[in-house]
Structures are given as C-alpha cells and as structure tokens.
Design a protein that fits this description.
This protein is α+β, with helices and mostly antiparallel strands. It is built from six helices and nine strands.
Amino acid sequence: MLQTCDINAAYVRRLTQQARCDYLVCAGYFELLRPPLLAQFELALNAHPSLLPRWRGPAPLFWALRCGARQSGVSVHLMDGRFDHGPVVTQRPFVLPPRHSGAALFRLAGQLAGRLLADSLTRLAVGGPAALHQVAQNEAAATLAPRPRPQDVALEPLAWDLEALLNFACGAPFFRTPFLRLGDEMFFVRRGIDGVPGGQLPGSHVLWGDSLLVPCRDGTARLQVQTDKDVADP
C-alpha cells in the first residue's frame, strides 16, 4: 500500500512503473491525476458520483441537494488529466432518499460505484479495453460541482420548497454547515427534522430549544440548529 500527499509526484510514477500495472482504478479520490501519471497505464478508470457531464468536480452530491434534485447517479469514465472529463463507459442513476445525511448518500453512491467498477473490470479482463463502450461527454451539457463556499450554504427558507429544504438541511452539513440569518441572530443548521406542508407561523420564525421553525414556499420547516452564541460559548 502506498500513502502519499502528492499522487502526481515523480517517485509515485517510478513506483507504478516498477509495479508494471496495466490499469488504474480510482474512486472517491478528490485530487486531479495528471497526464504524466496516467501515461504509466494502458487505461485509467474513475467512478464519479453524478451522471456526467452534470456536476463535474469534488462535490456533486452537495450540488444535487442544493439544486433540489431527487436523483443523482454514478458514472465510470476514462481519466484524461482533466476533472471528470473523459469518455463515459457506464453510468446508472440512483434515487436520493429523503432526509439522509451526506455520509449516507456517499455510502449509497459508493455501493453503486463498486458494482459498476466490478462490471467494468470484468469486461476488461475478458476483452481488454475494446470491450468498454466509450461515449464522449456532451460539453454543452456540462456543469460544475466545486467545493461549497459560504454563500453556497446561506439559506433563504422562503426560496425553498419544504422537502428540498429538509433534504438539504440533512445532507449539506457533511460538506459545509448551512446557516441562516434572521434579524440579528445567526443560526447554524445541524439537520432537518420535519415540516408541515401549508403550515404558517405568526412571525418570521419560532425558536424552541435547538429547534427552529421557519416558513418556506409551501409550508413550515423544523430545523435543528445552533446559534452563533452556542458556537462561541459551547
């Protein structure tokens, strides 16, 4: 086993040459593998948790939640030295279950990625690279999934549908903690709890312990939160 802080370093290339590996398989790795390293292999495969070319980059599941998507997917593609760019050899959608944590969604994506990679490697073993059906990605349909910035997790509940807000509140903290500012108070969201479709509040929000009730487009959502004071004085 090789552990390194720089996968593209010259000594890594020397080790892969010495190992005489034919294929490289990558899954759940967030660094870009550059052409000098990829050139050591006859073929390099990557499993990416989106239906490429949508959501290229390190945080596709976050952006699926941020966009209110009900499904994502996994794509196995050839690596070409650009982020999530090479031809797709297989992909399959999966449903994003409601109110799951980001870690749980990653596990679902990982299980599907394992099955798709196993199938691709079986085809490679039987027929070589020619056995993989390669489909070029449609560049016009490509979207990016960068690491979330603070403005990407700032919540305006009235801009959200209830279920999408609860799903985001449950899944997003795995990637970056969402927050919302109500008046002079800042609230950091730990998870979504539940909601009332069509529900209304007498004011802008209600805080009860660590539960925050806020209105959204089609109801009222209940979120588990910390305040900025809680964070400053645990």
